[in-house]
Amino acid sequence: MSTSTLASIQSRHLQELPKQRTLLGDAARRFARNKLALLGLAMVALLLLTALFADFIAPYPYDAANPAKALQFPSQEHWMGTDEVGRDVYSRIIYGTRISLSVGMGVMAMALLIGIPLGLLAGLAGGAIDYFIMRLVEVFTAIPALMLALLLLSVFGGGLLNVILALGVVAWLDTCRLLRAQLLSLRERDFVLAARMLGATNTRIAVRHLLPNAVAPLIVAATIGIPTAIFAEAGLSFLGLGINDPIPSWGKMVGNALSYMRVYWHLGVFPTLAIAITMLGFTFFGDGLRDAFDASMNR
Amino acid sequence: MQRKIIPLAPRRASAWMMFLLIVALLIQACAPAAPSAPGTESAAPEAAPAGPVVNALGKEMPPDAAPLDQQVLIYPYSGWRTFTTIDFFQAVYERADALTDLLSDSLVRLDKNFQVNPGAATEWSVDESGLVWTFKLDPNLMWNDGTPVTADDYVATFRYGADPTHAWDFSWYYQGVIKNWTQAVNGEVPVEEIGVRAVDAHTLEFTTEMPAPYLPAMLLYSAPLQKKALETHGGLYNSNPATSVSSGPYKLVEWTKDQRLVYEINPDYKGTNIPYIQRLVVVAIGQPSQLLPAYEANEIDFVWGSGTLSPADLQLIENDPELSAQYHPHYGDFRTYYFAFDVSKPPFDNLLVRQAFAHVLDRDTILANIVKRQGIPAYSFLMPGFPASNSEAFKDTYPYDVEKARQLLAEAGYPNGEGFPKLVMKLRAEGPTPVAVAQAYASALKENLGIEVEVSNMDFKAYMDELNAKPTQVQFTLISYGMDYLDPSNMLGVFLSGGRHPWSNAEYDRLVKEASSFTGDPAERTRMFQEAEKILVEDAAFVFVYHQTPGDLIKPYLKGPALEPDNNGVAAWHWPGFSTFSDLLSGVYITKDVVNYRQPPQ
Amino acid sequence: MARYVLGRLVGVLVVFLIVSVVIFLLMHAIPGGPYNEDKVPLSAEAKANYLRKYGLDRPLWEQYLLYMGNALRGDFGVPFQSPTETVAGLIARTWPVSASIGVLALLVALPLGLLLGTLAAARQNTWVDYLTSATATLGITVPNFVVAVWLVLLFAVQFKWLPTGGWGQWQHYVMPVAALALAPMALTARYTRTSILEVLRSDYVRTARAKGLSERQIMVRHVLRNAMIPLLTILAPQIPNLITGTIFIESIFRVPGLGKFFVTSILARDYPMIMALMLLVAVVWSLVYLVTDILYTVVDPRVRLEKSRT
Prior knowledge:
The structure holds 3 protein chains of 3 kinds.
Chain A: H1 3-16, H2 23-33, H3 35-52, H4 54-57, H5 89-125, H6 127-142, H7 145-156, H8 160-186, H9 190-197, H10 202-238, H11 250-257, H12 266-297
Helix pairs in contact in A: 2-12, 3-5, 3-12, 5-6, 5-8, 5-10, 5-12, 6-8, 7-8, 8-10, 9-10, 10-11, 10-12, 11-12
Chain B: H1 11-29, E1 72-78, E2 108-110, E3 116-118, E4 121-126, E5 132-137, H2 151-162, H3 181-185, E6 196-200, E7 203-207, H4 215-218, H5 227-233, E8 250-256, E9 260-265, E10 279-285, H6 291-296, E11 302-303, H7 311-319, H8 321-325, E12 327-329, E13 336-341, H9 351-359, H10 363-371, E14 375-377, H11 402-411, E15 423-428, H12 432-449, E16 453-458, H13 460-468, E17 476-481, H14 488-492, H15 506-517, H16 522-538, E18 542-548, E19 551-554, E20 558-559, E21 589-590
Parallel strand pairs in B: 1-10, 15-16, 15-17
Antiparallel strand pairs in B: 2-3, 4-5, 5-7, 6-7, 8-9, 9-10, 11-19, 12-19, 13-17, 13-18, 14-18, 20-21
Helix pairs in contact in B: 9-11, 15-16
Chain C: H1 2-29, H2 44-53, H3 60-72, H4 87-122, H5 127-141, H6 144-158, H7 171-200, H8 203-211, H9 215-235, H10 238-243, H11 247-252, H12 259-267, H13 271-299
Helix pairs in contact in C: 1-13, 4-5, 4-7, 5-7, 6-7, 7-9, 8-9, 9-13, 12-13
């Protein structure tokens, strides 16, 4: 290749390089180009808006029982039919967004808040710290959410906060282990060695190199974690713990619907759909986030 | 060349995904309708046998009965409940609704009209004091290890029930009735001093604390354990076929834990409750929701309806003429559901508040739309058909009247519910129907009176712990009670002071206790109970909602005199069911039709 | 490595002990006990009789030491729910049942999931990808007991091809395994797809492609191995879950496994059983974690479980 061609390629390359490239800027740009991710964002936004403005969207109150109209199939008046005491299912689904999102996101937040620091510690510090954190994980794994929930409920009474606490206390385990596993693999990689040779401190390596790379499976786990938390809450509601009636949560509605399912299918299908849509939304969003961060890293 | 890796899904593709999801979910929703019962096979009708067929106990089988090897009943039990024993005196609440208490005869047994008839006891009498009862035992009864059944077995069994080291879960039952029973349970006197004594090998004597005319009815629960086996192997000797002994119509041949039990007819049975059916296979069913599918698949012959059939199940049965014909409603155990308040604290210590709550219950709508055929409206505690029941008289005590309710609440100091504390209605692990009833009522309270109510369906033991705590932690609840024996002293006894509810009324106590031991004119006795019930209803510490009328599903090939209509025209599998406590087991057989449905299990 | 494994095994013991204390305290803190009350509250003496019978009248620390002392000798007591056998006997009877369904479900779910996930990743953005993603979503969103009930209605009640439940013949395995395998299969498919896609984008794959290796060789030699790590981490927790039995599946299909005891023991306040079950779970989890950690080193030789020397 002639010198001039090389020079022209080089100069073109230099011209094309934007001046300041930040990780976030890159990611945001990639995200915006990903149609599916945008769809996911839209769905999540829609869910959040529904939760916030439930009072304006829902045609009926969620607790207005009308036994004379119990167990009606979907109709003009009640788009998703009525439940076993005559409440409008559609309204309950809308209000249920609040509860289910709170549970899903609350538990996830707890899982991340506890899991990420502990996972980081375990994966990076290694040695004795890693050892003890992992043993802690194992201890918590043995404690069933059911027992914890029974205890919390009898001491503090029922309600949303206690459900989130009971589920969150066992939800951080997966996050922690995932992060640790990723870090274990990543910290031996070449780019880490390279960074170290260039004189980067451990913190800098952790924050700027390791964490962003480790984040991808975490995001995917977080998106799966939300419907898992919603269903875990349903299990608790089944056994009389957790959210009390008349407050609707989708998981609880699915659980209740089990006794009615063979004939009154609408009681189970709509909350299941709601959970599925929530999950899809978070999945697309999560995948989009992961793709956005990931691609920038490999540049 | 680099492959395009980033997914750029057009809207069309994700629409596809949603469509597929919805289709999949709709497939889930389109549950197949209940199919009709008969299977595909149909055996050729057998040639009529030469003479009448006789079973292992010499009982002549009816002409339409299936051959002896087909005389097998398949009965479900609750696989999730604790199941440790088939003997009442070992543990009542650990028998998981299975077929139990078949290995020895109770002193008395009920017929389908709930009449008390001789069982292991051929006759009984009470002395002038009304305190000492003498029961004469059938001398023919034998254990199938060759030893005779004697009064000693009964005495040993009752002593076992009162024994503090045994900690029987039904020990409250004879408290205050049999002399020294309470003291024995509390460890104050040795168990030998309870009022149960063997006068001779075939005469049993009971001494009561005070006159108890209902004692024979209570002694429905007196199926004895064998003294020898009890001493050798302990109270669980019947949980293992190897150590099991029977003097009853059946013997235990198999118990595969968490799967099934098998009984076979006891050829050495010498009593009078002689069954037709040769073999009983009792299978575990995990979830009540699986009872109907198993029944439809011809894997079980019977489904008990109390608290098991869901509203969807009942609708399916209603829609299907064959299933409807197999659905037999009956009184069950005269169970009544009621709301209860903690009257020891505000706001429910105020009669006006309670009355307001009573007036806002729209029984008719709730029953018509939620309870439907599972119950009838209850205006008081005793169900029509139960002795001393007086339902009609209380119909207008607290009729549905929202205006009146509002007025009363305002009078009590809470106009439109202002200042009224938020309530939590606690339920005791109830099934879908009572939960729905509770929710409907909670909603009515909010709508009509402005009172906020949350409904919490709790774990059974945690609930009982809260209910019985001192002071009680259950302020507002929906709960039920069903009878243990057929006498008002049993049902009305629930509301005596010191019971499970904090309500206490001296006049009520007096009336109930006096009437319970009253040995004079039965009409007078009834009157006393009815007066007590009047106090109960009027004080509105309890708002009665409905009497349960459960319905069982019984395969059409189960027939017999026990399943014919009773004096009230009800044809059903009467309480207490297939055990030595009733003569049901001697009045049911399998007809030839069974081959159209299933083969006998191995 | 040997020293590491030894250290981990000591860890299992430590976990065992900590869990035992925590569970013991937790279960006694829950209200109610192994006694039953209905019409009439138990009198103080009657309740005392119960507590004495179950050994619950002694101080907590004494009860704990007694239990653990026996446990370390292999005697886990007698379950309140089944007093004619020992806890160890009950677990020995029921665990193989649950394990057989769990293992079968895993044997079905893993290969299928891997296959589906790989397919989806390889045919990204085609209908194959979307179909598998949709199925995966379904498998995770629809609770397995709903699937189970539907399976019973279809195959047992409607078509009568299979029994509604029970145990003893091969037909009794089909539906429980199917219902149980759905979620792990979906999870596996999803993670496989994600991991593979991620790896496909990485440098060494690009290099391999540049070197001229075929897609197949790339997949097998590079992609799958690297994608395994997060997969292993997600899958490892599935194994103990499946093996200790899923409660609703076993109850719907009347499978006499260990699953139901996880719930019924708590509801019945069966303390010996609760302790034994939780300890079992703790030990199984610890061992599974140990095995997966060791597997990490096999799959990715760069992973070093001990602290890096650089």
